[in-house]
Design goal:
11 helices; Arc Repressor Mutant, subunit A; D-Maltodextrin-Binding Protein, domain 2; six-stranded mixed sheet; two-stranded antiparallel ribbon; single chain; alpha/beta
Length: 296
Amino acid sequence: MSEKKELLLPNLSVQQLEYLLAAANNTTRAAAAEQLGVTPSALTQGLIELERRVGLPLFERRGRSTVLRPQAKQVLEYARRVLAETKDLTHWAQAQRDGTSGQIRFGAIDAIAVHHRASEIREFHERFPNVDLRLTVAPSGALLEALLEGSLDLIACVEPEVISEDLQSEVFLEEPLLIYAPKEKIARSPQKWGPWVSFPKGSHTRRIIASALSTLGASYEVTAESNQPEVLAEMVRLGLGWTVLPPAQAKAGIDPLIPIKKTPLTKRRLVLVRRSSAPLDSVTQSLVNYLKKVDT
């Protein structure tokens, strides 16, 4: 009986994987090289060596361009995962060396950054002045994507319908969602509600709203969209449509909206999310405690 040969692992470098990710994210090799600060020839040689070590062709030429082959998908996903975890390790090591200093790349939806946890974020920054807290405010989908790619360390967003196995989340706040209508167009019957102005397609909050309205038998014809709650509120004031918003955002400004009824249509759960593989240093844990309003 013949012995099974031991599988030889390819000797891949982080730099080669970084080259692959840049090539996939840019339309030309020149743009990818510029992003990384290397020459196009160095990038090309690195990708050729990566193909040699993987043992599979990853690119094919189409005219003057080169594109990823379908079989490169697994290698690309591996590259994203390795680079994200390498960034995690780098930031963790820095925080361990410096104690209470370091960098936290935190992303939050506007409701968290502006309304619910603005004072807590400010207090954290005042208590840890040597921590480089980099705040990104964006919709939930964009924050989750940045977290998976390793551009953010921690995010606070609307709970997604499905969460990746690579992520770890916990609910820290539940927020009611109320219905608002132009003053002259208020109707009590759900069948007469609308038309609607709402968050764009793909929005986690829009999905929650659509489900709740469907349960009541109300139509959900969306005639205008915006990621910004302040813009949606202004559309209601202008009489362009109905909307569903958290009270904290509907009440903002000099002309707060009044809900058609005090009972919420539904609620959304806000979660703190980080990569499961990312080591949680003491400074990031302190920020988590501030966001959860835990005594520190």
